[in-house]
Amino acid sequence: MLESSWSLYEEQSAHVLRLLEWMEMTTVTAFKAFQQQVKAMCLNDFPSGIGSWNSSTHSTKKAEKFKQLKYHGEHQKLKCKDVNEEDPKALKEYLTCEQSPWQTKDTNPEIQHLRELAITSTSLIKENFLCSYLKSLRIVDRQVREVDKDILRFQNLEELILSVNRIPTLNSANLPRKLTVLELCSNKISSLKELCVSPPPRLQYLGLSRNKLSLDSEYNYFSEEFWPNLISLDLSFNDFSNLRDIVTHLNLLPNLKNLILLGNPLALLPNYRGFILDSLQNLVSLDDVLISPDERHHFRGISKHRDLIVPDTQVTINIGKVRGIPNPIDPLEELPEFPVVENSYFVTYEFLGSVENPCEWNELQTEDIPEDTQIEESLNGLSNQKNTFASQAIPTELHDSSIDAALIESFCVFNYKLPQKSWGDPITYNYSKVHLVKELYALKQLLQNGLTVTVIQEKILSWPIEIEEEKTPEPSVKGKAEDSAKGGKDSVKGKKDKDKDSVKGKKDKDKDSVKGKKDKDKDIVKGTKDKDKDADKRPILLQSDPPVQKILGKYHIDLYSIVTGNHFFEMICDLGVPKIERKVKPPTPDIKETKKGKGAKKKDVDPKSGKDSRASEKSNPKDTPDNKKGKGKRDTDSGVLVAVKPKHLFVEFKLQLQQWLTTVDAENEIYKSDSPYSWFGRS
What we know:
The protein is α/β, with parallel strands linked by helices.
């Protein structure tokens, strides 16, 4: 049974794959998409089109009948008419009345006019008529992959919108000659070569935003030779990064008034707006913002000053206070003397770093925590600090042609670590770091993907080191032999003296025995005291375990607003409730006695009175320790956790992208002593 079901599953999966491959191979042309839209207009369905409901398409009989009304002495002239037919005026009301289900309020004026025309002159609604009649054609999100030659049938077409499709390239020879507006936003166009083969001579607006344009060779197609009447050009959210070259070629378009370059890597440069305004004097608006005379005056001369044309940008990241970190030490808990616990906290954030300069970033080392599997996975992810930017943020489609792979590999995403600090609520870091980024494309991709801020706790346990006491060396065998030999020579003399002093020594021995015993006891007591004093003076050596790190919270910051034109971002990141281990204190002996029950209780007898001590406590309830502590404190001692609203973990985060508002600001930034641009070559 299992084998048959598995084989059926494999057959269905293979069928789905073949269907997807067939859909990929099937090319949807622009004219096919237009035919599908015509069917969706319902020009031949009620209330439009030819049908029994439309009286304008049938010849009506002019026979007249007279009928005498029952309650009036008059004759009314009535026309013979089919009850299923409607006149054109009534049918048009179905298209405009708000209560009508056929109302076409959301459609454009051309579709509205075509449906009304299908009511009054249904014979005109044919494909050839539509191709000659339409002046604006909008084919959006129809999976179009090719603009075929059938589009030339639209002889009077002036506006063609093909946004949100899958067009990789477009041959301009297939475009109508009267075209003035061409919008190709959100496609997959990576080259303008075929578009400039034979472009429409009257074209005034060209929209190429959100495509795959990035190569410097594409700048050559922005010239008067291809677009002599171009007024508006939208190149936003592509991958152009060379500001000087693109402005040099755009200056060759004599009628260019409106330009949109927002969302390109070059828009992240501090001199972006000022350089364009000073270079393109005919511009009226840049990035949909009108250019005032005062603004143009403020940037006067910035394009001719070579020192102010910088190839990189500055990003300043500030991290202020961290709030909500739980206190690792319970003030009501009695801690043991050892081990000594040291807790510290730090913050990490992701940003670009150069592989060639590893000193710019701090590598974060973490160890697995076996108690929590989820934390283990997070720490394992943080241990791999060098996440290559090509594998995470850069689309694979751009690796071959648009971006230099060697340049991508030199820039990676690293975790920058703030200095460690002890516990506090709040913990004030006041951290500020200026990142000088040369690769603008990598910076754009990083801002689009966002940054991750992490708060980590580091715990170190220290234990005392046991030191063995020094032992006095025993006399050697050689020394004993020498002493025995020496003693042999003096044996005769010693024997004589020994006999003389034997009587006298026996007497003194008895006298000193009592005194020696007393002195020996005094020396033993004194020695033990001195030994204890030396032990107290000796420092305790501690040995630390490897640090254990635990993630308290993470937050992913969305920085897409920086790509869309904002230069300052500020946010208080809510990392949620930190994961902490709550230790419940064991119950006191009194609580244990109460839990055993009355039968298991033992009577405490007062040795003086011989009565039960619990009876005396009942007689004096005011003196009980429970009443002195209070109800709430008793609950704390018994190990019962009171429900407390958990605190969230907050981190203050700021990011600022450098922007020069005037030429004076640019000069002050370039020529100051501590400027990061001091390495840049001067003219």
